[in-house]
Amino acid sequence: MKTEAVVLRSIRYGEADRILHVYTPMRGKLSAIAKGVRRSKSRFGGRLEPFFRLNLELHEGRSELMTVTGAETISAYTTLRADERALNGAARACDSLGRVFDSGEPHPEVFNLLCSALTLLDQNPEKATDEFQVAFRLKLLLAAGFAPQLAACASCGEVEELVGFSPAAGGVICASCEAGSFELDGETHRFLTAALASSLAQTPSADRRVISLADRAVSETAAHHGQVRFKAIA
């Protein structure tokens, strides 16, 4: 089979091979072995490293582990690789995506979201912020179908006095329904709303307290409704 793919993770295997975890538009997350790739004369060169966007040729045998038979680079994101902040941002984004979308189901919009994120980090390494990570995770939850309710109380629908956040209810909570929630101030609520509605390039900035609360809301929503455990941002 032939497919576009982004390498999420590359693991050394044996003396000269690598196991790749890649994300594709129409086959979701796949695992494949690249045989002999670590030899100096390998025809794959260094293009099977994390965050490369590729045209892959894969042989699908009886095993769930496919075999890489060909690879052409679409984008190596070379600027990203030279900047520690951007490299770390790309690694965290790929890790988050792999946790939410861990199957072979097609999600082309998620593939496009990942490519957009890597392009942004490559062109603007300074965008590799904690706010960016919260916004990226929010968009992953939206694509997965369990983004938090932010427009009205997730319990009763009230739109005024939204004072808390309930992971169990799935979003913000009003003063009458706040039992079992944690406090969520207006500034954090506005940040979450703007981060979900804006492009990644337009992610709003926030202070450490807001980022921490927003990260908690996103992470606990993912854990409760998707059984997904994100790595801590801060």
Helix count from the secondary structure assignment: 6
Distance between the termini: 40 Å
Structural class: alpha+beta
For the largest beta-sheet, the strand count, sense and barrel status come to: 5 strands, mixed, barrel
CATH class of the largest domain: Mainly Beta
What's the average pLDDT?
94
Residue share in helices? Answer: 25-40%
SSE run: EEEEEHHHHEEEHH
- Number of beta strands: 8
What strand order characterises the main sheet? 1-2-3-5-4
**Low-pLDDT windows of residues:** none
Q: Output the radius of gyration.
A: 20 Å
For the record, what is the CATH homologous superfamily label of the largest domain? Nucleic acid-binding proteins
> Judging by the overall fold, what is the CATH architecture of the largest domain?
Beta Barrel
Strand content: 15-25%
CATH third-level topology of the largest domain: OB fold (Dihydrolipoamide Acetyltransferase, E2P)
Number of domains: 2
Notable features of this structure?
234 residues, alpha+beta, OB fold (Dihydrolipoamide Acetyltransferase, E2P), five-stranded mixed barrel, three-stranded antiparallel beta sheet, 24% strand
What report would you give on this structure?
With 234 residues, this protein is an alpha+beta fold. It folds into two domains: 1-128, Nucleic acid-binding proteins (OB fold (Dihydrolipoamide Acetyltransferase, E2P), Beta Barrel), CATH 2.40.50.140; 129-234, no CATH class. The chain has six helices and eight strands, in the order βββββααααβββαα. The protein has helices at 78-81, 84-100, 108-123, 130-144, 186-197, 208-226; strands at residues 2-13, 17-24, 28-34, 53-59, 66-75, 162-166, 171-174, 182-183. The chain has a five-stranded mixed beta barrel. It has a three-stranded antiparallel sheet with strand order 7-6-8, with no helix packed on it. Helix 2 (84-100) packs antiparallel against helix 3 and helix 5 packs across helix 6 (208-226). It starts with a strand and ends in an 8-residue tail after the last helix.
